[in-house]
Amino acid sequence: MKEGLTMTDCIFCKIISGEIPSTTVYEDDQVKAFLDITQVTPGHTLVVPKKHVVDIFEYDEELAQAVFSRIPKIARALKNFDPRVKGVNIVNNNGEVAYQSVFHSHIHLLPRYTKEDGFKMTFTDNSKDYDSQALQAIATKISEQIKD
């Protein structure tokens, strides 16, 4: 948990408990999905586990299954709620350096209408800096860290 933050301070825990109102699009015993107040694009939805976890690094297999198994049906609902929706971005930020601003794990589902609808993602192409040997060295180091 972010330094100094407790579950009683967590805005998403307060939304889940009903202490803070939200506009719910889906809810069951494990997950709540509600409209993000920023509405980057119309229908911008947050999917949160009801169990307080800071980020993806705190998920166990059971929680991951509960949360991620709900994503496709919520994404389909977003794609189908407005005929102008052409796609959906699924974004999950983990850690402050990765732009996480609320330290209760959450997944953004952003309906996409056009390339100029207010949401942008850009990636730097560094492929010239990595030959197959360098890529393999990185892959090996990552693979060695995967634990069951």
UniProtKB/TrEMBL annotation:
<dbReference type="InterPro" id="IPR039384">
    <property type="entry name" value="HINT"/>
</dbReference>
<feature type="domain" description="HIT">
    <location>
        <begin position="11"/>
        <end position="119"/>
    </location>
</feature>
<dbReference type="GO" id="GO:0016787">
    <property type="term" value="F:hydrolase activity"/>
</dbReference>
<protein>
    <submittedName>
        <fullName>Diadenosine polyphosphate hydrolase</fullName>
    </submittedName>
</protein>
<dbReference type="GO" id="GO:0009117">
    <property type="term" value="P:nucleotide metabolic process"/>
</dbReference>
<dbReference type="InterPro" id="IPR011146">
    <property type="entry name" value="HIT-like"/>
</dbReference>
<keyword id="KW-0378">Hydrolase</keyword>
<feature type="active site" description="Tele-AMP-histidine intermediate">
    <location>
        <position position="106"/>
    </location>
</feature>
<dbReference type="InterPro" id="IPR019808">
    <property type="entry name" value="Histidine_triad_CS"/>
</dbReference>
<dbReference type="InterPro" id="IPR036265">
    <property type="entry name" value="HIT-like_sf"/>
</dbReference>
<feature type="short sequence motif" description="Histidine triad motif">
    <location>
        <begin position="104"/>
        <end position="108"/>
    </location>
</feature>
<dbReference type="Pfam" id="PF01230">
    <property type="entry name" value="HIT"/>
</dbReference>
<dbReference type="InterPro" id="IPR001310">
    <property type="entry name" value="Histidine_triad_HIT"/>
</dbReference>
